[in-house]
Specification:
- By secondary structure, the chain is an alpha+beta fold.
- It has a single domain, classed as Mog1/PsbP, alpha/beta/alpha sandwich (Protein Transport Mog1p, Chain A, 3-Layer(aba) Sandwich), CATH 3.40.1000.10.
- Helix content is 22%, strand content 33%.
- Strands 1-3-4-5-9-8-7-6 form an eight-stranded antiparallel beta sheet, with helices on both faces.
- A hairpin with a 4-residue loop joins strand 7 and strand 8.
C-alpha cells in the first residue's frame, strides 16, 4: 500500500487541481510580500501564513476533494488543506499543508503530540527523529524520517513541521520524488519555516 502523502498527491494530480496561483518575488526567496500564503485572499487560507518560494504554485484542497479521497484524505488527525507544487521551479515534488481540529490536532494539544500522530500514520516510516524548534516566533516540532517506497524499491527522506494554533494543528510536510529532489526543495521548506506566523483566520 503506498504511503498516504503519495496517494494524496496522486489523487490531486488526477483531479487536475495543480494549476493554481503562482507566488513569485523576483527570485529573492527571502523577500516577503504584503500578503503571505495563508492570509485571506490568497490561494490557500490557513490558520498560519508563510512566504512561498519563487515559482512554486499553491492550490487549496477543498473539503469536497478530501471527501472524494476517502481514507487517503487523512493522515492521523489531519486532512490536506493546501498543496504547493515545485514543478514550475524545476523540481519534482510537493509541500503539503495539513490541518485538523480533533484528537492530537485539537486546540490545547502540543506540537510534539501532533507530530508523533502524523508520523505514526505514515506508511513505512523509519529512522524518525523529533526535535523542538522555533518556526519564526512559533514553538514547533520538526521531524525527519525516511520512507520505504516498495513500488520504486528505494528509501526517501521526508521532513515535517508541526505547530498548534487556536484553530487546531497544522503540519507542513515535504516529500520529493527521490533524495536529490528532496534536498533541492529543502530551501523552500526552510523559507516557509523561517517566515511562519499565525493568521487572523
Amino acid at each position: 500500500m503506498p504511503k498516504v502523502s503519495q496517494a494524496v498527491v496522486g489523487v490531486v494530480v488526477a483531479m487536475g487541481i495543480l494549476n493554481g496561483c503562482s507566488f513569485s518575488w523576483g527570485g529573492d526567496e527571502k523577500k516577503v510580500a504584503e500578503k503571505m500564503l495563508g492570509d485571506k485572499g490568497t490561494a490557500c487560507e490557513l490558520p498560519v501564513h508563510f512566504t512561498l518560494a519563487t515559482s512554486w504554485k499553491a492550490e487549496a484542497i477543498t473539503q469536497a476533494t478530501v471527501d472524494q479521497m476517502g481514507p487517503l484524505g487523512h493522515q492521523g488527525p489531519l486532512t490536506p488543506a493546501c498543496e504547493l507544487d515545485a514543478k514550475s521551479a524545476g523540481h519534482t515534488g510537493f509541500l503539503i499543508v495539513w490541518s485538523g481540529t480533533k484528537g492530537a490536532a485539537a486546540p490545547g494539544s502540543t506540537s510534539r503530540t501532533l507530530m508523533k500522530a502524523f508520523v505514526t500514520a505514515e506508511n513505512f516510516a523509519s529512522n524518525v527523529k523529533f526535535r523542538q524548534v522555533k518556526a519564526h516566533n512559533l514553538s514547533a516540532t520538526e521531524a525527519t524520517y525516511t520512507v520505504t517506497d516498495l513500488s520504486a524499491g528505494e528509501i526517501r527522506p521526508e521532513r515535517a513541521l508541526a505547530v498548534m494554533t487556536k484553530h487546531g494543528g497544522v503540519v507542513m510536510h515535504l516529500g520529493g520524488l527521490n533524495a536529490d529532489e528532496h534536498k533541492a526543495m529543502l530551501p523552500a521548506f526552510e523559507l516557509a519555516k523561517e517566515t511562519l506566523g499565525l493568521t487572523a483566520k
